């Protein structure tokens, strides 16, 4: 699918294209991009009429995750020929990431209630391109007064005016009635630009009821509304931290307990089918291929648990898949897959199913870097019934104070009730009366993603999406809770100036 084309730059081998492309970005999806370069010889829009110069494949995550969101890649396409380099940069559109804290009061509003005064509230509307209005905020009701002071409230600039500072914002003032037939007191209009002047004579508004104005010659207004304060706060995003250099460290832990079945048998969840990945391999690849774009060295620690290890048959709940406990790092997701297959041949599946050791393993690393420069994601792939529930809950409660998240993918037919309990979406995990500081566990059952048609590619993309969707929010909740601001991004890239050499 063609997304767009840059402008043509005449007569150069070092073009600096101006046209920008706006793409929706999702951390949890693999967004594949292809860039084709052409030498344009005529006005024809048909690309086959122009010389193909080469192409580049990458993912949006690769551009965003590279240092300073700046990626250089060689252009490929003409065998045996150097086709040059493409330089890609990405920046987040931030016009609408601001939120505003505002407070209003009113004076001498019309009295609407027979017995008391009025019970006023404000309704805010933003105008749309077609002139219609959409409600975007309601204040609380202040009872029995003609001079209400409403509480300060926070609203995103996107919700208030869609980022357009001069767009009309309409406010209506009502008197609240129990039966829902609220009486209209009056209205006025303003804009974000007006409001941003803060408390001043510009932000005292006459509340006008057009019907009254039409009927009564002497009518001036139905009271005034005054802006008391206006404070802009910029919301920082997940990408601000990634741009500032925060690295995501990805660790894998695989369940080697005997309940998975003998790896030599086709019924085993660890069956090494030469033609197709098993469920463990699919889960590792699906999640790992997305997360790896955010880790600069692409080296991933890979652990196993619940097996007897050679040569002496001791049971381990945190062994290095590559056989090197001092250095359990594997090179890329491919390296993790290789280490996983190698260890299947050498260890004996055993038990029990203990999670706490691998969680504590990653927590030890996470507790040593709390400055926001690193965040740890542990992927546990398991067939199921957990043996150390109490210790696991305790390790999750302790880990919730650290820069880490835990993803659990359940493979096989078991009931995963305990996993659902660890995923604190409904009830926050607790241990010995202490609750987790934040929800850090995301659980998904692998069987929900096996496509009946056998199309694993699509279902793996869905698995990765569901598993990773919570990570940016969990990441931000850690940074906010610990008052960590993103580091400034490195200065934008400026291409080197090319000096033309002249022959003398």
From TrEMBL:
Tell me, what's a Pfam family for it?
Copine
> PROSITE patterns per the record?
C2, VWFA
Q: Where is the C2 domain?
A: 1-73, 82-205
The VWFA domain is annotated at 249-450
Question: Which Gene3D superfamilies does the record cross-reference, listed alphabetically?
Answer: C2 domain
What residue ranges carry the coiled-coil annotation?
Answer: none
Its protein name is Copine-8
Q: Which family does it belong to?
A: Belongs to the copine family.
Keywords of this protein's UniProt record, alphabetized? Repeat
């Amino acid at each position: 699918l063609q997304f767009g084309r840059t402008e043509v730059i005449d007569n150069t081998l070092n073009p600096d294209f101006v046209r920008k492309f706006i793409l929706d970005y999702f951390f949890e999806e693999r967004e594949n991009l292809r860039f084709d370069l052409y030498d344009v010889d005529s006005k024809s829009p048909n690309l086959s009429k122009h010389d193909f110069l080469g192409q580049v494949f990458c993912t949006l995550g690769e551009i965003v995750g590279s240092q300073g969101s700046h990626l250089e890649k060689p252009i490929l396409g003409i065998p045996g020929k150097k086709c040059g380099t493409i330089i890609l940069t990405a920046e987040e559109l931030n016009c609408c990431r601001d939120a505003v804290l505002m407070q209003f009061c009113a004076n001498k509003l019309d009295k609407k209630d027979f017995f008391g005064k009025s019970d006023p509230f404000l309704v805010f509307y933003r105008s749309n391109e077609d002139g219609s209005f959409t409600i975007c905020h309601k204040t609380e009701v202040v009872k029995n007064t003609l001079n209400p002071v409403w509480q300060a409230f926070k609203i995103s600039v996107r919700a208030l005016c869609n980022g357009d500072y001069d767009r009309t914002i309409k406010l209506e003032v009502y008197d609240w009635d129990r039966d829902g037939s609220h009486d209209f007191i009056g209205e006025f209009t303003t804009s974000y630009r007006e409001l941003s002047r803060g408390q001043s004579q510009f932000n005292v508004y006459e509340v006008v009821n057009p019907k009254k104005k039409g009927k009564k010659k002497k009518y001036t207004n139905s009271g005034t509304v005054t802006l008391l304060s206006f404070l802009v706060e910029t919301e920082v995003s997940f990408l601000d931290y990634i741009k500032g250099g925060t690295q995501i460290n990805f660790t894998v832990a695989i369940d080697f307990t005997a309940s998975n079945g003998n790896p030599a048998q086709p019924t085993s969840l660890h069956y090494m089918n030469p033609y197709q990945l098993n469920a463990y391999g699919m889960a590792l690849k699906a999640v790992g291929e997305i997360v790896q774009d955010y880790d600069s060295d692409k080296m991933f620690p890979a652990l196993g648990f619940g097996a007897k290890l050679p040569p002496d048959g001791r049971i381990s709940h945190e062994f290095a898949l590559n056989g090197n406990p001092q250095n359990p790092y594997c090179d890329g997701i491919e390296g993790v897959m290789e280490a996983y297959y190698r260890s299947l041949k050498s260890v004996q599946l055993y038990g029990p199913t203990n999670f706490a050791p691998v969680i504590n393993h990653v927590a030890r690393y996470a507790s040593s870097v709390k400055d926001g420069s690193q965040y740890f994601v542990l992927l546990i792939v398991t067939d199921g019934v957990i043996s150390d529930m109490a210790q696991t809950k305790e390790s999750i409660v302790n880990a919730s104070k650290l820069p880490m998240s835990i993803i659990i993918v359940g493979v096989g037919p078991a009931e995963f009730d305990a996993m659902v309990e660890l995923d604190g979406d409904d009830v926050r995990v607790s241990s010995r009366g202490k609750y987790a500081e934040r929800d850090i566990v995301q659980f998904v059952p692998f069987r929900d993603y096996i496509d009946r048609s056998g199309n694993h590619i699509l279902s793996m993309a869905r698995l990765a999406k569901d598993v990773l969707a919570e990570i940016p929010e969990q990441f931000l909740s850690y940074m906010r809770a610990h008052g960590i601001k993103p580091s400034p991004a490195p200065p934008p890239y400026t291409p080197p100036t090319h000096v033309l050499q002249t022959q003398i």
